[in-house]
Amino acid sequence: MSINVLKRSFGIVGICMIAALFTSPKAEAQTEVMAWSNMTGIRIEGQLIEFESSFRVVESNWTSVFATGRERQGSQYSREGSSQTVKLNAQRISFEQTVTDKNKGIAAVSISYQSDTTRKVEGVYYSFALPVNRYSAATVQIGGTQIPVASLSADSKKASGNKIVIKAPGRNIQIDLTSSVTAFVRKEAGVPTLYIQLLGSNLKKGQKGKLGLTITASGDIDSAPVEVVIDRHNPGRLFAGFGGNFRLQNPTNDPQVIDYCLDNMRVAFGRAEMPWATWQPEENSDPIAIARGGNLNERVDRSMKMAQRLAAKGMPVIISAWFPPRWALMPGQTRGFGGVAGLKLDPAKTEKIYKSLTDYLVYLKQEYGVEAYAFSFNESDIGIDVLHTAQEHADLIKGLGAYLASRGLATKMLLGDNSDATTFDWILPALNDPKTHEYIAAVSFHSWRGCDDETLKKWGGAAKQLNLPLLIGEGSTDASAHRYPQIFIEPTFALYEINLYIRIAAISQPLSILQWQLTSDYSLLWGNGIYGSTGPLRPTQRFWNLKQLASTPPEVFALPFTSSKEDVNCAAYGSAANGSYAVHLVNNGAARKAIIKGLPALSNIKVYVTTDKLNMQEAQSSKTADGSLSVDLPAMAYVTLIGK
């Protein structure tokens, strides 16, 4: 972003603060620290030297192992300059870890810990899991003891020392400790894992300790060009564009973020809330009559106006319900707020439930001019907040779907809207029941915990089986991130997020990915009080990433491609009808060139680059001797080529 753009966007006041944001020490961060404390490696010139640290509490005789990880424990994350600090409590042991980037490839780690319990365990450890693809032929040296990973069948013998050296082809990690430690190596599901002991087997309440270590990483830097070959003659599924969730939760901060996102990003799909509990709090009331009598609940009105605003921009709108009214619940169920409520609807009141939900959608259409594209209960596979079995979900699609049609609505149901891609099997009864199909608008899942390629293929396959679109109803990577919101402005978080979306786009070919959210919740903007931040309202790296993805031309199809590098994620789109093409590239390594083959001759090409320092900055492309296109990929960069 240039100073002139800053002046136009924010005025003179605050420019220094914004400049500081983009030139702060975090921009030079090389150690990837997750908000739950685990390090995933150290970057050198953008190349990640991989490992994963964790705190582990092992029960006696290895009957169970608790390892810190995403959503496994509460934590607090903060950054000050080049230091990242995480505080957490796991298994009644408190930990505090500060990781400070030093010189190239070098990080200093300071750990303190304290037991809040007296009991027997196997031990409390600081661990390093080493990826098999990089470290299967490694040697781990603890003090004077060498341990070849290849010959390790289970546990190595314990050894002591104040230096641990891990050597593997193309990778070296040296850990220098402030005091001598006891350590050993285990193979866990084939993964070599280094255990450094912090506390022994007899825990005492109040027992505490500290450990300091310096990690020095080195390895081969791969800067060879990546070749991407696009097959434009076999287009796949339609991509409508990037979308967003607009569940209103913060009347103070939501409006400014919503306005900014809708004014500065092409949003192609929307999802808004049905505040069902406040729409019809009393079982035998007539909510439409009450609303038309001038007593419409303010929250309901705001949600309907949000849907109206999205529809006025031409986007399809999904309506989803979280909190049910008490009367709709099974006897003894209590409606809660937040978390996994797991609330069961009363089957004896099915018809009343269908009428109440449909009344809302009818009133939305009649009074606000919005006919919802689809309806869903949010994450009913796990119960946030309504809980359905897989068969109940299939029955709901048939029952409510038919009722919506009987009331003259074109609104259909989402198949799934699952909490996670990994719960795919939950949609199978509905997917395999032909009687559900006429009432399904699209297949949907939420991307909170990521997913492997095979799982993503299953979701794409389900949509193809029905010949219906696939939607990512909630796009994001960490459901707990609102608890440690400073992570939202970290380059690592931004890179992981756009990586996931480009993988999903390429493998599953969704019609849209709907960001959670384009409000102040999990905000793409910072400042002006959002999560307590100061300074003017301003876009983060995440905003620029998603604006860049949202810049994909409308009405284009996913295109097959091959890529010569695993650490460059790609997605390609194009249309022979309108002549528009887009290629998205996420470079997870060192700076390199990308050679793009298979595109038609394009006369108008724009290249955009987003990194921790560049905000959708325009760059240049060039033609190679054979007519292919060449673009520069900076280290840890998201690069998009758009042409016509």
Secondary structure topology:
Elements: H1 3-10, H2 15-23, E1 31-33, E2 39-44, E3 47-50, E4 52-58, E5 65-67, E6 75-80, E7 83-90, E8 93-101, E9 106-115, E10 119-120, E11 123-129, H3 132-135, E12 139-142, E13 145-148, E14 159-168, E15 171-188, E16 191-199, E17 202-203, E18 208-219, E19 226-230, E20 238-239, E21 243-245, H4 254-264, E22 269-274, H5 276-279, H6 287-295, H7 298-312, E23 317-321, H8 350-368, E24 374-377, H9 390-406, E25 412-418, H10 428-431, E26 440-446, H11 453-466, E27 470-475, H12 491-508, E28 512-515, E29 525-526, E30 538-539, H13 541-550, E31 556-558, E32 561-563, E33 568-574, E34 581-587, E35 592-597, E36 605-610, E37 617-619, E38 621-623, E39 629-633, E40 637-643
Parallel strand pairs: 19-35, 21-22, 21-28, 22-23, 23-24, 24-25, 25-26, 26-27, 27-28
Antiparallel strand pairs: 1-2, 2-3, 4-5, 4-11, 6-7, 7-8, 8-9, 9-18, 10-17, 11-16, 12-13, 12-14, 14-15, 15-16, 15-18, 19-32, 20-31, 29-30, 31-33, 33-34, 34-40, 35-39, 36-37, 36-40, 38-39
